[in-house]
User: What shape does this take?
Amino acid sequence: AQKITQTQPGMFVQEKEAVTLDCTYDTSDQSYGLFWYKQPSSGEMIFLIYQGSYDEQNATEGRYSLNFQKARKSANLVISASQLGDSAMYFCAMRLIYNQGGKLIFGQGTELSVKP
Amino acid sequence: GAGVSQSPRYKVAKRGQDVALRCDPISGHVSLFWYQQALGQGPEFLTYFQNEAQLDKSGLPSDRFFAERPEGSVSTLKIQRTQQEDSAVYLCASSPGQGAFDEQFFGPGTRLTVL
Assistant: This one.
């Protein structure tokens, strides 16, 4: 069975510092995609970054980077230079490429609080 | 351009009532997904449409849940005889193609409270 595990229910970070949010995944498929979404209090899921299972380089999008360690089955999100607006829930998700209709499998989420 | 919209944003129902939740995907998007997000949890998949065809409904929790997308655009999630455990945020997402590489764009969700 496919599963995403986020072991940090809540994290605090000082403004302008970097923070790492942990994500591990479990699948026997070789082809999959890993995603990170941000969910502010307004409720909408905002796509942040994507990593394909065959991508050799870690994905980066502005202040977001994904630390992909395939052998460990981990896909941690690194946010550099945290801003107050980064305070939100963060979800790691996985999508299988060849079956199950492309649905996303989400973790439990990590609530990030950025302190001024 | 307009994103995914959902209505109503908030719905309060008495136990046993039927409810209908609407999703307007981004125009032209082929794929449409429904997810259920309980308080403090990550979203869980309910069902998937490719155009008007419902290709996966494995996540629907019971036969009280029914979804349709008759013309391949707007979708409605219907819950019959609502129960308290149905209280959750219902998220709709659409994506332009049918491939798993396509980004899913989410709507703001409908928060359902069953009393």
Notes: The interface with chain B takes residues 4, 33, 37, 42-47, 50, 52, 91, 93, 95-98, 100-109 of chain A (CB under 8 Å).
